[in-house]
Amino acid sequence: MAKWGEGDPRWIVEERPDATNVNNWHWTEKNAGPWSKDRLKELLNKFVIAQNGVDCKVTEVEKIDGEASANNRKGKLIFFYEWDIKLKWEGTLAGSKDVVKGEVHIPNLSEENDVSEVDISVTIKGSGEEAQRVKAFMHNVGRDKIRKQLTEYIRSLKEEFSKGLILPKKGEGPVKPDNVSMITSGFNKKVSMEPVVSPKTNQVGCKLDTKSIEISEKFQCRAQEFYDAMTRIEMVTAFTQGHVKLDAEKGGKFALFGGNITGEFRELVPPKKIVQYWRYKQWPDQHFSEVTFNIEEKDDHTLVTVKQDLVPTAEVDQTRDNWRRYYFDSIKRAFGFGAFL
Question: Where is the Activator of Hsp90 ATPase AHSA1-like N-terminal domain (predicted)?
């Protein structure tokens, strides 16, 4: 295995103006939040929906809360976005002077859901037959039109943030978006760790036999990259392929694999050490183990040693297997950290 910069093409800085992220091997990220807010406002504000004698228009984008980012790993783009949007709208029936006013709420625009599955609720202020007819129009026709605008946002997000995120190799021309592989986080995939505890052991107040586990694994990455893979929510989401809750600071909580794994960060020393309180959902109530990640960057790889204390004795073998299967192997697949030459 060549040392970094001594023959391995993933680390060689070729003769090129930028001299960064050669062959697109590293995880790189762009913040797409501010651009997204502007684009969503452009697509939704003053948006007109008219058909069959009903005229409606979005009069104000009242709220856009959330975030978006575009990430590159080995020539693949991974997009993360999650938005909570509120719109104000008004509409009239042909021949009527009465103006119906209401709101549209889009609480869950994210890569987790297909646009066709995104919740869009329509409400009105006031009542009456005309108001209900206009509301029905917005519910049946307006929501589909708004979905098309949201689809356009996603399309333009991918097109805009493909530019410059995938760098051409030496001697190649600019990378076209059509040639870029685009994937999402896979939030909608159901991935969970296999049960490792018999329900009979799930008792409070009983004496529990425990043991310690120690596992070492080599990763083809820098220490900071592995540390980021364990502490940055978008990277944890990418390798767990499920919804993640994570606050990477001392005392911060985390929940992974659909809530099967929960815990708390006890110590963070970038990029050398991570200490967590860690439990599997089917362990006895209130029982936590303590997990320490020691991250050591070598000449040609990063060595990660995981020590886990207070593991229920009956679950030691399965827990060790699950570390390799759901953490180590998944991290290597997601980010290419296992590709040794």
Answer: 29-163
